[in-house]
Amino acid sequence: ESAVRAKTTILPQFWHDRVVRDVPYQYIKNDGTVIDVLLDSVVMDDPVWGTISLSTVRNITLRKRAEEETKRTKALLNSIIENLPNPVFLKDAKELKYVLWNKASEELYGYSSEEIKGRTAHDFFPVEQADRFEIQDRETLSKGDLLYVPEQIVDTKDKGTRIILTKKLPILDDEGKPQYLVGISEDITERKEAESALIKAREAAEQASRSKSEFLANMSHEIRTPINGIMGMTELAFNTDLTVEQHEYLEAVRISADSLLKLINDILDFSKIEAGKLELIDVDFGLRDTIADTMTMLAIQAHKKNLELVYQISPEVPDAIIGDPGRLRQVLVNLIGNAIKFTDQGEVVLGIQSGVESQNAVHLHFTVTDTGIGIPSGKQEKIFREFEQADGSTSRKYGGTGLGLAISSRFCEMMGGKIWVESEVGKGSTFHFTVRMALQKGGIVQITDGQISDLKGLSVLVVDDNETNRRILEQILRYWGMHPTVVDSGSGALDAMEKAHQDGAPFPIVLTDCMMPGMDGFQFVERMNREARFATPTIVMLTSAGERGDAARCLKLGIAAYLLKPVRQSELLFTISRVLNAPQESQARPSLITRHSIRESRRRLSILLAEDNAVNQLLATKMLERMGHAVTTAGNGIAALDSLEKTNFDLVLMDVQMPEMDGLQATKILRDREKKTGGHFPVIAMTAYAMKGDKERCLESGMDGYISKPITAQELYETIEHVMGSLEKDSRQLPIPAKVAQVLDKTVILDRVGGDVDLLGEIISLFLEDSPRLLAEIREAFQHRKPALMEKAAHTLKGSVSNFAAESAVQAALRVEGIGRSSDLTEAPQAIMHLEREMERVREELVALSQEIRP
Hints:
Elements: H1 2-17, E1 19-28, E2 34-46, E3 50-59, H2 61-83, E4 88-92, E5 98-101, H3 103-109, H4 113-116, H5 127-143, E6 147-155, E7 161-172, E8 178-187, H6 189-238, H7 244-274, E9 283-286, H8 287-304, E10 308-313, E11 320-323, H9 325-341, E12 347-357, E13 361-370, H10 404-414, E14 419-424, E15 428-439, E16 459-463, H11 467-479, E17 483-487, H12 490-502, E18 509-513, H13 521-530, E19 538-543, H14 550-557, E20 561-564, H15 569-581, E21 593-594, H16 595-600, E22 606-610, H17 614-626, E23 630-634, H18 637-646, E24 651-655, H19 663-677, E25 683-687, H20 694-700, E26 705-708, H21 713-724, H22 726-733, H23 746-752, H24 757-783, H25 787-802, H26 807-822, H27 828-852
Parallel strand pairs: 10-12, 16-17, 16-18, 18-19, 19-20, 20-21, 22-23, 22-24, 24-25, 25-26
Antiparallel strand pairs: 1-2, 2-3, 4-5, 4-8, 6-7, 7-8, 9-11, 11-15, 12-13, 13-15, 14-15
């Protein structure tokens, strides 16, 4: 076929031109293989042969195959580029004219390949945009490297402006010089619109979250504020004379308020846990006092059901630890509260042991054991789930939200531990939980390093019908180096005293339970006092529930101390040290040590209370005054700062939310002042908010402590002690406090009422109610220049205050009386001011005394 084609087409021309070159055709080899060749021929005249042709053949089979492969590859690449989803273009490196323009480019920019090939960007796009493209292209070619063009807005023919990302890369020739520039673009307009929508949605969600948080915070504040007033004023009302019916009504109010507060706290805690916004704090605290305070909070609830509530801390458990005492207390309150709720008779026992201990941390193992109804094995795991209860029926006997144990479980996990239960129906339950706590370095020294050396070797008689109580007291006393003898009844105690008398080693001190079957604590002491042969020991009475009139009976029987169980170890040690070291012979009628008198013996502070809510202001004032502190009030931050400029207070209790100027602003201003003037006023925040960050904001503003409303007397006391530094001092050495400067003579007062503390209480109440009226009459008489009326009111006040052997106040009233009698009012302002100060001191002492005589 090739030969025929050559003969008919090439040879005629060949013979005419006498030469042909690169004539393509194919040879068939002997083996049948077809090869491609190129023929070169020339016509020559030979004298012998005549006209002849000389031909050469070149085999180009491989070259032709390579060309065909290159052609196929190019077609494939063109097809790929043409069908890529991303716009791709190619420009020559010299004039930057478009050489290639794929379908995606056509779809994006709106120009066809035929329109744009051989032309530049300036032929289609706006000048500013085309100039920008050219600058980018020249930069890519000059650098010879890949260029990432950031987001840019470009104009298109049909789609308006679009947001484009582009990568540009030079293509070099064999000599390494730029020949072409390839560009790959990506239209990210939809992505940016989606991102913008996502950002807006996120901002809306964050705003919704902030609104939710603000709502929860405001709800917390708005609910806690009235609850604070309800609970606090109810507690104050319990300390007044009430009828049985009134007491029942107030008890119902207190129970309802407690339940509501617990529900609010559970809901807020659970919502914060679910949102991952609940954090633990790490502070130094004493474990034993924290446990004792917690048990004291729950004691009334247990005693109402006639349950023994006791706790036992193993001696090896360290006391000085670092952690979150509030959350630990919350777990304990939940578990012990449940144990009390589900137990109708018997006891609830808290046990604490230490597990694996390192140099810097300790694992604590807590157990709460009850003798209650128990939990079926199939429901023991279920109770730790949210909103789950062992009995979920609407007719169940015991209420609750089902959140308490779930929250406690989360807290234990956050504190590096876990929680579980062992139980048998009808035989009670034991809840276990573990936590990991860091150890303090040179912080609170264990309680046993205080004045225990003075008690070592001391014999003590322990009388208690409850075996667990006896075991715990025995262990504590032995740990302090004392030699306890324990008996389970009053008759057993008399037998033990008889034996001690015969051995010539009488007991110097007796710790006796008050509520015992057969012979109670008071009856035991009465029997003991009638036995003349017994050396009269010092008696410390421990009771599960104080009754009105108990203090009078204690004083009458010569009992030295009267404490509510469960008693803090520090208070027990303080009491034993105090009663054994007090010079009883110097007092014809020694005062009774109670939990109130122990607290009153602490440092008395001058406190500024900044609180705008009238009920909360009254409540906090009463609580502070009962602790023996003097209180001045302010209605907002401005008034508080004004008072701080005029008076040197020991402490400021600052409500966070107040009109005109809130507590945070006031504290910041105060701290700025102190930078210039020096000094430091301790400030404790009081807030009804309870959300994440509230405490941090208070501390960042310069506050030293934080109390969440509703405020309890115990928490208020502990926070003040911690901030003022006395908590650490007490836990280190438990000193017997120095006697406060005498304002009135308690011994004379008691003698005048024949030891009748109930009568004394009535006299004190009457005086506290009447004396402000007399002071007001004195001030009014002075203002209206009526000396006779001033003399009369001062004379009446002098007679009233003299009943309490308050010599300084009597002299101050006498001076005002004399000024009124002389009708010369020149020195009246100073005299009246001095009288008011003395009367304030008397009032504080009488308030403290009324608490001391009322257990």
